[in-house]
């Protein structure tokens, strides 16, 4: 028999302890004719099951990572779409505001032009009235032509 140190037993417990304990328990329950062969086959099956479980776990982790990646991409696309939509809405609001300002400026200019035209028309009318008034005053100072004066006399 081999002399084992505390390190050796610790190593065996850490690496194969659980598998051997489960295999021995299975052999005791089964009571086979050849317990060593049974334990060997059981350990091979244990290793195969561990590999299958490991592969399943790995595949499951990959599936979960794929789902996570898809979700992250979808969220990123939605965020980009949201930012694009908000930018379009802001641009539309800015354009609308610029159109409002331009329309208001056009209305103010039109009103100013109309007021200026009215003022010019009023000034022209006033000048015409003043000229007419000046013309009447000049006409009173001038003697009436003879034909006109005679007509006035006959009416009396």
From TrEMBL:
Region (Disordered) residue spans: 113-156
Protein origin, superkingdom: Eukaryota
Comp. bias (Low complexity): 118-137
GO cellular component, one term: Set1C/COMPASS complex
Biased composition annotated in UniProt, kind: Acidic residues: 144-156
Family in the record: Belongs to the dpy-30 family.
Stated name of the protein: DPY30 domain-containing protein 1
Native source species: Tetrabaena socialis
């Amino acid at each position: 028999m081999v002399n084992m140190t505390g390190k050796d037993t610790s190593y065996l417990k850490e690496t194969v302890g659980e598998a051997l304990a489960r295999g021995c328990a299975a052999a005791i329950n089964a009571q086979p004719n050849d317990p060593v062969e049974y334990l060997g086959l059981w350990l091979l099956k244990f290793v195969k099951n561990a590999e299958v479980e490991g592969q399943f776990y790995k595949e499951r982790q990959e599936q979960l990572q794929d789902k996570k990646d898809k979700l992250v991409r979808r969220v990123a696309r939605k965020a980009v779409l949201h930012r694009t939509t908000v930018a379009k809405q802001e641009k539309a609001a800015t354009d609308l505001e610029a159109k409002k300002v331009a329309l208001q400026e056009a209305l103010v200019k039109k009103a100013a032009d109309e007021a200026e035209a009215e003022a010019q028309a009023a000034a022209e009318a006033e000048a015409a009235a003043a000229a007419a008034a000046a013309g009447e005053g000049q006409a009173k100072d001038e003697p009436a032509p003879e034909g006109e004066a005679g007509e006035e006399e006959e009416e009396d």
